[in-house]
Structures are given as C-alpha cells and as structure tokens.
Specification:
By secondary structure, the protein is mainly beta. The protein is about 10% helix and about 30% strand.
C-alpha cells in the first residue's frame, strides 16, 4: 500500500514539473500555438516590358549605307491588345534618333520593333554612333509604358603588329656549289605513266547547232521569253480599290484609301515638312498587309511604287514625301499578323488621275498592280 502511494506521488510531482517547464514558453507566444508561415517570395513584376536581342551591338560602318537590325520584343501589353502604340529611340542627349508612328500590339499583348543600326538609304539617316540609347514604347500622348537600353560599341581594334605570332626562323640549308661538266649527260626522256585498266575519257560530243530566225545559230536551246502577267492583278486588270492580292512572298496587300493631295494633313501633323512644288502633289496611299507566308516576315512601304498613264514610275527611293504621320511600321510579323499605314509619293499634278500602285519586284511576272480610284 505504501509502495502504491509513493508511485502515485512520484507521478504527480513529475506531471507538475513538466507543466512548470513548458508553461513560460506558451506565455511568451501570447497563446499562439501554430507555426508562422514562411515569408512569401517576391513576385516578378507583371506588365509591359521590352527585351532586345543584343544589348551591346557593334556599330555599323558610318561611311556605308545598309540594314543591320537589333530586334526589340515587347510582352505584357495585354491592356493595349490590337491597338497601335508609338516607339522611339533616344540618345543620351535626349534627341530622338528613330521613331515608329504605329506599333501594332498583337491579341496576345506582344509587339516587335526593328532598330536599324546602319545608315538608312531611304530615310536619309546616318548610322547610329557609339553611345547609349533608350528604346521606349507608349501611347501617342503620355509617358512611355516600357523601355530598355542598348549600348552601341565600337568594333574591336585589330591586333598590333608586335602581338602577332612571328614565324619561327628556319635553319638555313647548306648549298653545294654546282660543278659544270664539260660534257653534260643528257637527261633521260620522261615517259608518262599510265594506270593499268583505266582508259582515257572520251571527247564530249558537241551540242547540235540550233537554228534561230535571222540566219544565226546557237549551241544551246532557246530560252522562252516570259511575258507580262495577265488576268487579275495585271497592269491591264489591276485589283480594284479595297481588294486583296497575294504578293510573291506571301503578303496579302489591300489598298484601303487614297488621298491625292495630302500635304495639308501632313503639315498639320508634322509642321517641319516642306510643301511640294506648285505643279506637284503629295499623294498618300493607305495600305494594309497581312503575312500569310512561312516563318516570319517584315513588310516595308519601300517595295511599293506608282505608275502613271504616261509610264512614269514613282518610287520611295526617289519620290518619297519625307516624314509623314502613321507610316507603315517595319514590324516583324508571324503568320496572320497585319500591319497598316500610309505610303506617300511626290508626283506631278498631271499624273494624279492616272496612277496605279504596284509591288515593285525585279521581274514583271512577280509584280501585282492595284487600282487607286
């Protein structure tokens, strides 16, 4: 009986000690008996952003003209999907060097800019010099929505002459003085060695002469001359205004509007523009192009030209109006992507009523013609 009482008393004292040992810790936790959650990791910012394909490209040769692009891709522009924004490239001094008046945002909130580092032969712009540049995209009025930086670097210097590996000197060979014999022995004749079992190649048979009208002959077959395009899209049957024609490289082009005398509107948007001569007109054609080819493509208004009834050709290299509002943006497009904008030609006033737009390809069979009235 006494042993049982001692056992119960010892157990009771052990329980009281355990409660006293653990009691203060619960008091310090203010009664909270749950584990605190680990701090949340910072979330990546969600919103418009721009990323360049090369953040430190080498400059182009300032003395030459051409095209070398840095591609700047934007994402997170979902709030501006299917809308048009403007792009700008600004140097360290705050001077604008490149502009895009209409940057199309895809339904997925993406856009693409192509920054030409070289001197533009069509835009009359020199190559971008060494320095830091900021590429921005935003609405036509207001602050930029996203920006990224590009640092143009000079080309690497050629290695100095002292740094070049010198060839190891070759030991000089001892030469034996020649002794002239009074009666030199003639050299034995060289007998050609013929591989056994291999016969000489037969002489090719001459091509038969082909008679050509006019009395001349030719040793090759006559090449047929490819005539001009016929049917829809030809010069005799251009696509009507608003109709879509598929160009040779897969772009589907349509003329959506024409302004025969557009200088007043151009000057209102760009006050620095100069008016054409009194017998000339700034002729604006508004186009829309949808890429239906494979991979990716870039549509440029430089490929378009006008032909008058007097067979005078106006192109963007010689007859562009200069800076105009809402020019066709040189955006990189995937299949199904579209660009739209204005192309302007300075033409003679007497040719305004007889102009036809065409895709200025090298061969006549690849050219498509579009009516403008």
């Amino acid at each position: 009986m006494r042993s049982l009482i001692r056992f119960v008393l010892a157990a009771w004292l052990s329980l009281v000690g355990a409660v006293g040992a653990y009691g203060p810790s619960y008091a310090q936790s203010d009664g909270a008996d749950t584990l605190s959650a680990p701090p949340a990791e910072p979330q990546a910012p969600v919103g418009p952003n721009l990323q360049a394909s090369d953040y430190a490209p080498v400059i182009c040769d300032p003395s030459s003209l051409g095209f070398r692009y840095v591609e700047v891709r934007g994402s997170g522009f979902d709030a501006w999907a299917t809308q048009h924004l403007v792009g700008d490239v600004v140097d360290d001094n705050g001077q604008s060097r490149l502009q895009w008046g209409s940057v199309w945002v895809s339904p997925q909130g993406r856009l693409t800019l192509e920054v030409n580092l070289c001197g533009d032969p069509f835009g009359n712009r020199p190559a971008l010099p060494v320095g830091n540049y900021t590429v921005t995209v935003g609405p036509s009025s207001g602050q930029a929505l996203a920006a990224t930086s590009i640092a143009l670097t000079p080309p690497p210097e050629p290695a100095a002459a002292d740094d070049q590996t010198q060839p190891e000197p070759q030991p000089q060979q001892q030469t034996t003085p020649s002794v002239t014999s009074p009666n030199p022995t003639p050299a034995p004749p060289v007998i050609p060695y013929v591989l056994p079992g291999i016969s000489a190649a037969p002489t090719p048979t001459p091509l038969p002469a082909v008679s050509i009208p006019g009395g001349t002959t030719s040793t090759s077959a006559a090449v047929p001359t490819v005539g001009p395009r016929t049917g829809p899209g030809s010069l005799q049957q251009p696509f009507p205004l608003g109709a879509t024609g598929t160009l040779a490289d897969g772009w589907q082009l349509a003329v959506t509007g024409v302004t025969p005398d557009a200088w007043t509107g151009i000057h209102a948007a760009v006050p620095s523009t100069i008016a054409p001569a009194s017998d000339q007109r700034d002729y604006v054609v508004r186009v829309q192009a949808t890429f239906a080819g494979q991979g990716t493509g870039v549509f440029s208004g430089m490929r378009l030209a006008l032909l008058s009834g007097t067979q005078t050709t106006y192109d963007q290299l010689h007859n562009a109006c200069g800076t105009i509002p809402d020019m066709v943006p040189p955006n990189l497009m995937t299949p199904g992507g579209s660009v739209r904008g204005n192309v302007c030609f300075t033409v003679r006033a007497s040719d305004v009523d007889s102009l036809t737009l065409f895709d200025n390809q090298a061969t006549e069979t690849d050219r498509l013609y579009f009516a403008l009235k």
